[in-house]
Write a structure and sequence with these properties.
Blueprint: H1 2-13, H2 38-51, E1 57-67, E2 72-81, E3 84-92, E4 95-105, H3 114-117, E5 124-134, E6 137-146, E7 152-159, E8 166-173, E9 179-187, E10 190-202, E11 205-217
Length: about 240
């Protein structure tokens, strides 16, 4: 192990070999220029955020995979209306729960909505970093610095070149030295989170978490009973003889 490490370090410190005359040296692919001026893209971004709110009423499912000090595999189904949320635990370690575990949260905002995560010019300083090809168009990447201290900071946002909405948001947290990213994409006519990944140090051990969101639905309303605390099932004592 030590020999391999030293070889790797020396390889980095030594000058790269010169290519033979008949073999041209490799060059990195040039970064494509921005399709529009960064200032124009930021103006489009602010306008797009203003007219693409996350629906107040929706349902979706998500899978959660966590490895580290504690390994977790779960699937959930979530119903939201305003600040009310019903989270149903459907499976644990691949085994279905019947009935599912139900948790009701009131006054609970959608943590993965673009309103909650997307950095805004009034709260962050944006600095153009690069452009990246995304199929037939070009996205623009911006580094972001919060204007005031915060426990969770957005460090980078990739803005979709067509919609001007965030494709990818990268963040860090002071708690547990966490780092992660959330990817967004078009779901029907809405812009929703599709995946989220994070790493952190929990109980002095590294932990990795990955979430995949799917089966989005956007009903007009949800019944009031959706957010009522479920009553416990009746228990029956065996008869005495």
């Amino acid at each position: 192990m030590i020999a391999l490490l030293l070889a790797a370090v020396l390889g980095v410190m030594s000058p790269p070999p010169t290519a033979p005359p008949d073999i041209p040296p490799l060059h990195p692919r040039p970064t494509p220029p921005p399709a529009v001026a960064p200032a124009t893209m930021l103006a489009r971004y602010a306008a797009a955020l203003a007219v693409n709110p996350t629906p107040a009423v929706l349902s979706f499912e998500y899978s959660l995979d966590q490895t580290g000090a504690r390994d977790i595999q779960q699937t959930h189904r979530v119903f939201r209306s305003g600040l009310s949320e019903r989270d149903e635990l459907l499976t644990v370690e691949g085994k279905a729960l019947s009935p599912p575990g139900i948790h009701i949260f009131l006054g609970h905002r959608n943590r993965y909505a673009i309103e909650a995560l997307a950095p805004r010019p009034e709260a962050y300083i944006f600095r153009y970093v690069a452009s990246v090809r995304d199929g037939h168009h070009v996205d623009e990447v911006f580094a972001t610095t919060p204007r005031s201290a915060t426990g969770v900071r957005i460090e980078q946002v990739t803005i979709d070149g067509v919609t001007a909405l965030p494709d990818m948001i990268r963040f860090s947290t002071q708690v547990h030295a966490g780092r992660g990213s959330v990817a967004f994409g078009r779901v029907q006519k809405h812009w929703m989170a599709t995946t989220a990944s994070a790493t952190a140090t929990v109980a002095k051990s590294p932990a990795i978490e990955h979430i995949t969101f799917y089966r989005y639905r956007f009903p007009g309303s949800l019944g009031a009973s959706t957010f009522s605390t479920p009553k416990p099932l009746p228990s029956f004592a065996p008869p005495r003889y």
